[in-house]
Write a structure and sequence with these properties.
The complex is a heterodimer of chains A (about 250) and B (about 270). With about 250 residues, chain A is α/β, with parallel strands linked by helices. Chain A has helices spanning about 45-50, 90-100, 105-115, 130-145, 160-180, 190-195, 230-245; strands at about 5-15, 15-30, 35-40, 60-65, 75, 150-155, 180-185, 200-205, 210-215. Chain A has seven helices and nine strands. Chain A starts with a strand and ends in a 5-residue tail after the last helix. With about 270 residues, chain B is mainly α. Chain B folds into two domains: about 1-45; about 50-260, MetI-like fold (Orthogonal Bundle). Chain B is built from ten helices and no strands. Chain B has helices spanning about 5-45, 50-65, 65-100, 100-115, 125-130, 135-160, 160-170, 175-210, 220-225, 230-260. The chains are: A alpha/beta (about 250), B mainly alpha (about 270). Chains A and B meet through strand 5 and helix 2 of A and helix 7 and helix 8 of B.
Chain lengths: ~250, ~270
Amino acid sequence: MGLRLEGLGLEYSTPEGPVSAFAGFDADLEPGSIGAIVGPSGSGKSSVIRVIADLEKPTVGRVEIGKREGARTAVIFQDYGLLPWKTVEANVELPLRLSGMKAKERRRRSRPVLEELGLEDFARFYPGRLSGGMRQRVALGRAFAQDPDLLLMDEPFSSLDELTRETMQETLLETQSRRDTTVLIVTHSIDEAAYLADVVYIMRYHNPGRLAATLRAPGGIERSPAYREEPAFRDFANRIRRALEGREE
Amino acid sequence: MKAPVHDARFAAARVSRRAVKKAASLAAALAVIIGIWALAARLVDKSFLPQPWGAFARLGARLADGSLALNLGASAKRVGLALLIAAPLATALGLASGRSKRLDAFVSPFVYLLHPLPKIAFLPVIMLFLGLGDVAKVFLIFLIIFGQLLVSARDAARAVPPALVDTLRAMGASKLDLVRHAVFPFALPSLLSALRIGLGTAVAVLFMAETFASETGLGWYIMDAWTRVDYPDMYAAIIALALFGLGCYLAVDVAEAVLCRWRDVD
C-alpha cells in the first residue's frame, strides 16, 4: 500500500459555523504509483492534501501511508515554499536539519540530489536569483532529499510556462521512478493528470466537494514526450474531461 | 545551465560596488551642505554662525583633548544600553503577539493607545520617578526604540506568508523552528527599518533629555557651549551629534547588508 484513504472528510470551523471542505474521499494508491486529483476550484482538492500532510485533522475517515511504521511524507506547494533567505543548499537540507541531522550527514544526503537535478552549481544561490523552473527543481530536491515514502504536490507546476512545465513533469517522473516514491498531485491541468497519473481522482463541487470518479490510466503505456502525441494519451485526457463535466462516472 | 562563480561572491562584489557609490554620493552631499554653510556664514557675518572650518577645527581639537569623546561616550552609552535592553524584548514580544491571536488581543490595545503618544512629553514624569540620572534617560530612549520595534515585529510576524508556515509545519517544524527559520528572518528587514527610525528619534530625544540636569552627553555639551557663548565649541558638538546619528544609520546599513544578503537579488 502506498496511500490509502477511507471515507476521508474535513470540516473547517468558521465564525458562521462549520463549513465542509470535502467528504467521502476514498483512494488506494499502489506503492510507487502516481495519483492525480483533478477538479474545479473550491472542490476541496487542496484540503485533501492538507489532511494527508497532517496540516489539518480530518473530521472523519482514515489516512494510511506507506508500507512501514513512521513513513515519511514530503509536500510541495504551489509557490514552492522555498525560504528566500536560505541558499538552494540550505533549503534542500532544511527538513534534514529539522529532523536533527548533523551538518556533515546533511551535506552527504543533499549533494547527490542537487547533482541529480542539475543544481550543484547553484547550491550557494538564493532562490530569488533562480527562474521558476529552477525553483521548482529546488523544491523537488528538498522533497526527495527527505527520501519520502509519499510525495504530495499541490499544483506544483501551475505557475510555469507550458514547455518548462513539461520538462518538470519529465524531471518528476525520472526522480520518482528511481526511488519508487508514491506521489499524489493536485492539478488543474487535464493534460498534466493524463500524462503523469496512474490513477486520476475527479472531484466535483457538491457542497461539500466530493470524489465524483476514479479513472485508471490505460495499461502498458510508457511515459515519454512521444506519449503526449499518442491516441491513448488523448483518449485518457478526454475521459478525464468528460468525467469533470459529469458526462462519465 | 552552468554558473561559473558562487552567488555569494557576486553578491559581495555588488555590495562593495554599492558601498563605494553610496560613499561618493554622501561625500558630494556633505560638500554641498558645507558650501551652503560657508556662504551663509559669510553673508550673515555674525559670531553665532562661524565658518565651517572653524567649527571642524574645534571639533578636531576637542576630540584630541578628549572632552568631546567623553560626552560622545556618555551619549552613546545611553543609546546603546537602551537598545540592548529594548531590542530583544520588543522583538520577542512583537513576534510572539504577531503569531498568537490570544497574546495579540492583550498586547495590541496597549500598543494602539501608547504608541502614538510623544514619549518626550513624559520626560518630567520619568525624571520624577527615576531621578535625574542616567536611568531616566536610558528608560526614555528604551521606550522609543521598544515601541517602534514592537509594532514592526508584530506586523511583520503577522505577514509571514502562510505557504512558508505550511511548508515548515509539513516538515515537522516546532514552534521554535518556525520562529527561527521563517518568522524572524522574514521580519528582520522590517526590524532593521524600524531600528533606523527608532534610533533617529532616539538621538533627537537624547538631546532633549541631556539638556536637563545633566553634566555629560552631547546634548549637555551643546547647551553648555551655548551658555558659555563659545559658538565654535557649540557647532563642534552639534557636528559630533550629527556624526553620531549618522554612525547609527551606517551601523544599521551594515547590519542589513550582512544579515539580509538574500534580498540583494536583481
